[in-house]
């Protein structure tokens, strides 16, 4: 199934501002742009280059021989500095000569120029010579020129090892290293303007914030139609994505698949992962360490537990991988054979809970973090996450230990309005998750997709009028927020453009 949609360029205000700042710098600038496959690195560079079409030399490396690459780069260099001139068979004998020639021609040009080398990792595959040649040219001349140099690459492990690690020739040369992250949820509002908020949350639960995955979603078609097409056709064409993403760092992926699949099915502690994956405990620990280093997995701790608590839980960081291993991977053989009914039934039974347990909670935490900073909540948390003990769990926790403030939130993804018992149960769990030290001021938040009933509104008013309290805590209000409000406010805050005075949005 080919992509059905070219998503608009959205959500990169901060990155575009950074590129422009580097361009306007009075000094030479050296950017290393890296990130996972399909996250939008080339699109970001192209959108920025449209603002300076005559001043940027863009060249993309290819999986070819070192000599063919050098010949192609030599020709691109000549054509850029001799526009409209006669063709010439320019072929620099070494990469060092080619980079030095760029510096010399840039100096003669009389105004700032940028060199963008995309897919730089294809050059690194030939060994450290290219990076060493560029390092020598940067040290000897380029760093003193009126120019901007940008290297971009998708192979995360190779960029880290070949450019950013202390052993790499180019280590310490980059003035800026930017790891491009997937787009946040609010960007879906601009990319899919005809979709209601609940459909965009569901979309984000399936493919996350990777623009290339959005291309498989037809914004004019209903969500259910898109979802069926995606899981029965597009997901097969993307079936090698998990392996490609892992192979950026890891060669043998088999046992790692077992770990990721176990976590996606709900195993979050080492013991649970060991049982679900049927791998030896020592292997599980080693694989988890590797997955933590590569960023495919994160270890979350209960925010109200002591900092040295060992009760961490492991989660997949990428929504697409989470969805793939939970729903697609177990049914790949059946999908390939044209048997779609079992997967469709699995989605019908469990997608709603999947969205509520992961994506809706993560969006609520994002809202909590920024609502505090924007003054939409009475407390500004320093950290946002979740909290749990053996007897209780709270979906959203915002904590500020210095001020002794705590935000406790409950998330409900049901389309039906929630009742008063949700707030009562949340308040009743306060004592169980309270940090051991200090006295705390607590504010409650209920995130409800479908809003709330009259009984909930009345319960909230009663709590405000007579705040509950414990031996070391006292409630200071409650906020009821539905999906519409979360979606609208996150969109407004997301659109904030950074100013030259240092105002930075998320």
Question: How would you describe this structure to a colleague?
Answer:
The protein has 506 residues and is α/β, with parallel strands linked by helices. It has 22 helices and twelve strands. The chain folds into three domains: 13-179, Rossmann fold (3-Layer(aba) Sandwich), CATH 3.40.50.300; 187-357, Arc Repressor Mutant, subunit A; 372-494, Trna Endonuclease, Chain: A, domain 1 (3-Layer(aba) Sandwich). The protein has helices at residues 13-24, 41-49, 66-81, 95-109, 121-124, 129-140, 156-164, 188-191, 197-207, 211-214, 223-237, 241-247, 254-264, 270-277, 281-294, 319-328, 332-336, 341-374, 420-428, 430-433, 454-465, 483-494, and strands at residues 29-34, 56-60, 113-118, 147-153, 176-179, 297-300, 313-316, 383-388, 393-400, 405-412, 440-448, 473-482. Helix 21 (454-465) links the parallel strand 11 and strand 12 (473-482).
